[in-house]
Amino acid sequence: MVSTSIRRAAAKKLRANTTPHERALWRALKDLPMDGSHFRRQAPIGPYVVDFFCPAKRHIIELDGGHHNEDDTAARDLARQGWLENEGYRVIRFWNSEIGSDLTAVLERIYVELYGSREAQAMHLERRRKRKRST
Questions:
Q1: Among positive and negative, which fits the CA dihedral 115, 99, 12, 42?
Q2: Residues 6 or more apart from 116 whose CB is under 8 A from it?
Q3: What is this structure's pTM?
């Protein structure tokens, strides 16, 4: 496994070199009503660095460009998503084109994933820390 300091450095580098679609979603996520919680961008989780992460709900948002259609990249994405879901995270994927063409629909889906419906009131989301098991 890659060391924590290397993953953090990789995440920092990714944050400094965001794509236009990531920047657009990041700006929009800041305006999403989420009382008491937030999203992080380019967050290291296990051996991976995810695009956006809401610790309170353990939700991950991944943005995929055209190269994610290639067989080897799609296979890596599937394995990565399987690992994350096995660890208790919920992964939501969007194509870059969805961000560019209908950002409102993307935000609506994220809101529904967080709160259960479009009509649900935003509520305080408490971050649940994963307790380390003593050995």
A1: positive
A2: none
A3: 0.74
